[in-house]
Amino acid sequence: MLRVTANTQLMREIVDLLSVLTEEAKMSWGEKGLTVNVVDGSHVALLSATISDACFETYECEPVEIGLELGKLRDLLTLAGPSDLVEIDYDDAVGAVNVRVGQVHRILRGLDTNSMSDPKLPVLDFGCSATIDAEKLSRSLRAAKFVGELVDLSLDSKEMRVSVTVEAGEGVNVSFESGELSELTCPSPTQGTYSLQFLDPLTRKLASGLASDVQVRFQDKYPLRLDWSSNDGGASWTYFLAPRVTND
Q1: Does residue 198 sit in the same domain as residue 227?
Q2: 29 - beta bridge partners?
Q3: Rounded to 5 degrees, what angle do the CA atoms 120, 149, 247 make?
Q4: Beta bridge partners of 155
Q5: Which helix (H) or strand (E) covers residue 144, if one does?
Q6: Do 98 and 154 belong to one domain?
Q7: pTM of the model as a whole
Q8: Looking at the structure, do residues 108 and 160 belong to the same domain, yes or no?
């Protein structure tokens, strides 16, 4: 059994961020809120969300997993007015998800969750981290994408750098000194190389108002990890992106 009511902004945030990686999501509704982990088709990137029940206007739930096509939910949300609430009612007897937005009622057929992936977050110990404004991070990655598809991230005790260089000799370099970062911890210099194909779309979403600060963690041959919170701390997000490892 599931009966929840949410403001449109919260549901758009959930759907928009998950849609960066996938069009189908297994949503685990528990007594204390929603958890969902998704991966892209090539299993290069993973996004995990924990949305507290306090983020919802109303929340009644017996633990249940529901598989949904995000595109259908996203289409419905485009009809929402500024003051409309989103009501979700799941009938496990028939597997139907009733979604109401304003006067619109749509019945969605739940996907078979047994056939959907259930990715786990890797457990890794990062020695270095930096916390940066989401807009600054997105802007630097957009600049990097002007000249390449792979970005080099590096950290030391004084600054964080975002750079890309291509064979033609063109390049982009952006640096953020420690005073421009909310937090910087780096006992020894480190670096990593990652795909902008995955990073750029996500950070653009975050910079649109979905996050203020983003914690960035990485090191050589490790995945990149991004962490941020939203909804006054009621929603926690974690993103992993596999590194691009080159053989020198």
Answers
A1: yes
A2: 34, 64
A3: 75
A4: 160, 190
A5: helix 134-145
A6: no
A7: 0.94
A8: no
pLDDT of amino acid 93: 80
For residues 11 and 89, membership in a common domain is answered with yes
The label of the residue with tokens 């290069």 reads 44
In single-letter form, the type of residue at position 89 comes to D
Cα gap 122→217, rounded to integer Å: 13
Residue located via tokens 């914690």: 215
Which mean pLDDT values do the consecutive 10-residue runs of the chain (248 residues) have? 95 97 96 96 96 98 95 95 92 87 93 89 94 98 94 96 88 95 96 96 96 96 96 97 76
b/e per residue 192-204 (b: at least 16 CB within 10 A): bbbbbebbbebbb
Structure confidence at residue 197 (pLDDT):
94
Domain encompassing residue 222: 129-241
17, 58, 113, 138, 218 from 52: Cα distances, Å: 17, 12, 22, 27, 27
Q: How many angstroms separate the Cα of 237 from the Cα of each of 50, 86, 149, 231?
A: 7, 21, 25, 11
What confidence score (pLDDT) does residue 82 get? Answer: 81
Written as one string, the DSSP assignment of 65-104 is EEEEEHHHHHHHHTT--TT-EEEEEEETTTTEEEEEETTE
Confidence at residue 227, expressed as pLDDT on a 0 to 100 scale: 98
Q: In the prediction, which pLDDT does 246 show?
A: 63
Retrieve residue 246's tokens: 């080159």
